[in-house]
Amino acid sequence: MRTHTGEKPYSCTKCSKSFTQSSQLQEHLRAHAAECNFVCTVCGKAFSRYNSLSGHMKIHMRKRSHPCTICGKTLSSSGALVLHTKIHTGQKDHICPVCGKAFTYAGHLLVHSRIHSGEKPYVCKECGKGFPDASRLRVHSRSHSGERPYICTHCGRGCVTASELKKHNRIHTGEKPFNCSICPKAFPRNEDLKVHIKTHSNDRDHICCYCNKGFYQASTLKVHLRIHTGEKPYNCTVCGKTFSQTSALTVHMKTH
Question: Which residues does the UniProt record annotate as the domain C2H2-type (predicted)?
Answer without folding.
Answer: 10-37, 38-65, 66-93, 94-121, 122-149, 150-177, 178-205, 206-233, 234-256
